[in-house]
Amino acid sequence: MKSLKTCLWMLMVVSAPAAADPVGSSAGAAKVAAVFGTITSTFRSVAHNRAVGGVPNSYHLLGRAIDVVRRRGITHHQIDAALRSAGFSLIESLDEGDHSHFAFGPAVAVQPPKSAAPEAPAVPAPPKIAADEHGTLWLDLRTKAQPAR
Fold first, then answer.
1. Distances (CA, A) of 33 to 79, 113, 130
2. What are phi and psi of 68, to 5 degrees?
3. How far apart are CA 67 and CA 94, in angstroms?
4. pTM over the 0.70 mark
5. C-alpha 75: how far from its chain's center?
6. 2-104 CATH pick, 3.30.980, 3.30.1380, 3.40.50, 3.30.200
7. Could you write out the DSSP letters of every residue in the chain?
C-alpha cells in the first residue's frame, strides 16, 4: 500500500510542474527528476565543467542537461519515462551507474501532415465578353492553341 501511495504521489508531482518551464531547459527537467532522486548538476560554467571532468562539448554548458543520483529502488528507466512523458526531447539518456545523465534537445514544432486528398482541378477562366458600340456582344471562345485572326 505504501508503494502505491508513493507511485501516485510521484505521478501527480511529475505531471504538474513541467508545463511552466520551457521544454528543453534543465530547470523544468530538474523539477520532474527531483521526485526520483537528488539533482547534482544542471548548468555548469566552463571552469566548473573542467573541474568535474566534463567533456568540452557538454550539454551542461548550454543548460540543457541534468545529473540525478537516484533514490534507492528507482531505476534509470523510470526517470527517462517520466521526462519523456512530460514532453522533454531526450538527446542523451545515460545510466552512469552511480547517477543518471539526461540531455535535452530544443522543443520540436510538429507540422501537421499534408492532406492525402488530391487537389481539385483548376477551374477554367470564363470566356471574355466584349460589346461593340452598337451593343453587339462578342464572345471570345478561342483556346490558347488557336491563333487570333
1. 6, 33, 76
2. -130, 125
3. 9
4. no
5. 25
6. 3.30.1380
7. -HHHHHHHHHHHHHHTGGGGSPTT-HHHHHHHHTTTEEEEESS--HHHHHHTT--TT-GGGGT-EEEEEEPTT--HHHHHHHHHHTT--EEEEEE-SSSEEEEEPPPPPPPPPPP-SPPPPPPPPPPEEEE-TT--EEEE---TTSPP-
Identity of the residue numbered 45: S
How far is it between the farthest Cα atoms of the chain?
99
CA–CA separation, 74 and 80 (whole Å):
11
Interatomic CA distance for residues 132 and 46, integer angstroms: 83
Per-residue pLDDT reduced to its tens digit, 107-130: 656 566 776 777 777 777 766 666
Per the structure block, which three cell numbers stand in for 119? Answer: 487537389
Nearest alpha carbon to residue 30 among 107, 82, 72, 105: 82
